[in-house]
Every structure is written in structure tokens, then in C-alpha cells.
Specification:
- Helices cover 28% and strands 14% of the residues.
- It is an alpha+beta fold.
- It has a three-stranded antiparallel beta sheet with strand order 1-4-5, with helices on one face.
């Protein structure tokens, strides 16, 4: 199968057909409901089997999350592409799989993408923020909690005329395990 953006309309398989009602008045939108079951050739685990972080000591968890953020910010600051690939590889594999990309991104492809984005990078910094639990306590991050960058990730890179933000969302795959970037 080709990557989806290269596919021709005739190559798509119909999975659901819905008959639309005739619209006789000018309305801003139409809301319709329908259901279908799609079988996909993969199963994404993501953070579904992660530990419930809301049961952990919030102060210790926040220290750990901030420590992981500092580790990752350091990788961006030092333009450590191989380190960033190690951190992001599982997540990128699942993203590619969910989009049905034919070829999985390997470390060399990620290196090229990261190198291009980091070439513009002038300075990476860690902003102040507040820890947030999400996904019924299975995800944790630290986001900017006030000001113009409210709810952005706390890792920010100056790329000249603007900023790039690198939000990091973590889960704990098993009891006592290190926080990992979600897949």
C-alpha cells in the first residue's frame, strides 16, 4: 500500500455509505449520526496499559516529570539527534502505523527530519509550568500555566522569528518503570 497522500481515489475501499437528506433551507451545518465497524491490521497499545499516575505522590511525580523534561530539553539544546530519536522512536512507529504509512521510519529518517528542524534552532529553554494529569491519570506532562503561551509545552526553542514548542506527554508502562514518552 502506498502512503495515503500518494493514493488515487480509485484505490480507496469504501467502508461506509450514508444517504444524505435533501437540504432545502440554508443552514450552517448538518449533523448526522452513523456507526460502522472497521477492522484494522494493527493494534496500538499507546498508554492504555500504563499505570494510574494519580495514585502516586504528586510532589515526587512532578519532580520526576520535570527531570524527564530537563533531560529532553537538554537533548534539544545540545542538538543530540540520536538521543531524541531514542526518546521518540516508539511513538513515531505507532504514529506511522496508525496513518498506514507503507514504510516505517527508521532511525536514519528520523535523524534527517530532526536535523532539519534543529538547524533553525537558536536557543532551547525550559519555561515555568504546572504538572497536569490526563487520560484518567495515565498521562502526565508539564504545561505553561499562564501568560501568552498558556497550555504550551515547557520546552521552547527560539527559531528566529518565532518559537517552536515541544510538548512531552509521559506514561509509566509498569510499576516502578521510568516515565516514557507516549507511543
Amino acid at each position: 500500500m502506498e502512503e495515503y497522500y500518494k493514493m488515487k481515489f480509485a484505490d480507496f475501499k469504501e467502508v461506509f455509505r450514508m444517504k444524505l437528506p435533501k437540504v432545502t433551507v440554508d443552514v450552517p451545518y448538518i449533523e448526522l449520526k452513523g456507526e460502522f465497524e472497521a477492522m484494522v491490521p494493527y493494534e496500538l497499545e499507546g498508554w492504555s496499559k500504563g499505570m494510574d499516575l494519580s495514585k502516586e505522590d504528586p510532589k515526587k511525580l512532578e519532580e520526576e516529570v520535570l527531570g524527564r523534561m530537563k533531560e529532553i530539553a537538554s537533548l534539544y539544546q545540545n542538538k543530540d539527534i540520536e538521543g531524541l530519536v531514542r526518546e521518540q522512536y516508539k511513538r513515531m512507529q505507532e504514529v506511522d502505523q496508525s496513518y498506514y504509512f507503507n514504510t516505517k521510519k527508521n532511525s536514519e529518517e528520523l535523524l534527517v527530519e530532526l536535523q532539519e528542524s534543529l538547524n533553525e534552532s537558536k536557543k532551547t529553554e525550559l519555561l515555568e509550568g504546572k504538572m497536569k494529569l490526563m487520560a484518567n491519570g495515565k498521562l502526565v506532562t508539564i504545561l505553561v500555566d499562564k501568560g501568552v503561551f498558556f497550555n504550551e509545552g515547557i520546552i521552547r526553542t527560539d527559531i528566529g522569528d518565532s518559537y517552536a514548542f515541544y510538548p512531552q506527554y509521559f506514561y509509566r508502562p509498569s510499576l516502578g518503570a521510568k516515565l516514557e514518552i507516549i507511543r
